[in-house]
């Protein structure tokens, strides 16, 4: 069933678990991730990143597949734009039938980010589209010019998060407290108290989002969920694991003769990997 993310995130926060949000830039990942969500029996968000559209498959090709698979799934599925900063990209995703948008203007000065997101959210809500924004700057992986000390300068201020959420009306806000995108050069250390402070300060109509979830140890992931994270973005380590699996498979005796048979094996691998991730996000519930 295709849904936006408003109700599934509200239910997640009330239940003390988090909804996984996983990039699905090809058919094998769509099928593996949705089969995992059905087996673990949790709602899921699948998303298409602007950067994947620029460097890979276009939303006009992958978007309708995401939407069709979402409609047929046995669990609620939100089809979401990931880090859309170009308005034209967001419009292309909405034309493909997406139910939710991350409008990421975090590179702009605070008031500009706020006013543009606020205007967009008013229109989006009238059309039943949920909206996520970002506050703070999510760096690339630690170690690439960042240390555990200097990354703290990018952390989201709880009072500013509250102001942004109240004035913009967004359904979800991605905040910075120690995670980064991509592959971690050093193990991340999360500021869990900051998550609690952000959750307590924000209106209860806006959920807390953690990006860079892959590569964080499971203990800290679950502490962040208990502290108030309801949406957890995860991709890089899944993509990397699938590559390693394919390399192992193609070099071994388990290799199939036909390409599509190897692809089917990848769907199974992604499903099993995602089942583990989604079980961690259930946080014991
Ligand atoms: Zn992100």
TrEMBL record:
User: Where in the sequence is the active site?
Assistant: 82
Cofactor annotation remark: Binds 2 Zn(2+) ions per subunit. One is catalytic and the other provides a structural contribution.
Q: Which keywords are on file for this protein? A: Metal-binding, Zinc
Binding residues annotated for Zn(2+) 2, in chain numbering? 104, 134
The family database entries (InterPro entries) matched by this protein are listed as: Aldolase_TIM (IPR013785), Class_II_FBP_aldolase (IPR050246), FBA_II (IPR000771)
Q: Which cofactor does it need?
A: Zn(2+)
Quick check: keyword tRNA processing in the entry? no
Keyword Hydrolase assigned: no
Q: Which GO terms describe its biological process?
A: carbohydrate metabolic process
The record lists Zn(2+) 1 as bound by 83, 181, 211
Q: What is this protein called?
A: Ketose-bisphosphate aldolase
| Source organism | Tractidigestivibacter scatoligenes (Olsenella scatoligenes)
